[in-house]
Amino acid sequence: MRRALFDHRVRQMRVAFHAAYAPFFQELDETKQEADDFQRRVDAGSAQWEDYDEETGAGRHYGEEFGERRLEAEAALLLLRKAFVIVIYHLWERGARRWVPQARRKPNHADLVAALTQASIVIDKAGLEELRLLVNCLKHNSEDARKLYVLRRHLFEGDFDPDSIHSATGKPFVNIDWAEIVVLTGDNVEHYFRVVQNSGPR
Length: 202
Hints:
By secondary structure, the protein is mostly helical. The protein is 63% helix and 3% strand. The mean pLDDT is 91.
């Protein structure tokens, strides 16, 4: 019964994730279609990428507008992915507190893992630890992010290096905004769904 209920909640969350995702993918598809159509009009000589009002001097760049729409949709998708990995972890955390008795009133991650292991409940320890580090990075901008960076560099912007030297000061960067440089894909979110689903009672 516990397993069926947990699986149901994970499935519900996955459905919610894809439902929230859909409008922004639609916006990306529509933007691409409109940009392709506009390019065909430019090629045919019936339109141009830049348009200026001769009286006011005001200008409009259609390519920039399409680019801004695409970036806004992609930014919204990234925010959704970050939000859902946090919710996914807390779903597992709440479940783990119910599955087995806890020695402490407010058990931490290590307490939950230990209690589940002692109760012979199979969990993905490595995956859960990675998810915990990611959630702490997103919620608290904590230095746990350095551990995550060592484990999964691909979850951060490609040109980011936490040990790089500031060109002006000649010193290492401080006060790194870790949460802002996390880059998640839909596949990353699906991976963490599987981690959580594989970390409960059978």
